[in-house]
Amino acid sequence: MDYQGIEKRRFVRAKFPCSISIHTLHEHVITTYTENISAGGVRVVIEEKLETSSNVGLEIQINKNIIICKGRIVWVVNKESPYKKGIFYYDTGIEFYEIKENDRRIINDAIEEILKSEK
Description:
alpha+beta; 1 helix
C-alpha cells in the first residue's frame, strides 16, 4: 500500500522511471530508478533503509542530462515484497535541498512533457 498521508507537495510530480544514484553518508552508493519525480524531490523504492532527516548526494539522469544535487530523506515506509514473504523494501521520499535552478528547470520541463503526453 502506498503512503496515505496528507499531500503537502509544492511541485507537480509525475511517474517517471529515470536512473538515480544515491550516495549515502557512508560513501555507499545505491543505484535504482525513481518511482516518481518532481522539481522538489523524488520517490524511490530501495532495499536499504535510510534514516529520516539524513542527507544524501544524488545523481539523476533525465533524458541526456545528469543532475547532481543534494537531498534529505523526508519519509520512509516499510513495504513487504508481494513476491517473497519476509523480504522488505523501503519506499523512500527524498527532498532536494541543494539543487541548481537550471537543473530544477530541466526536471520541471521533463515533467511537463510527460503530463502532456498522458492527456
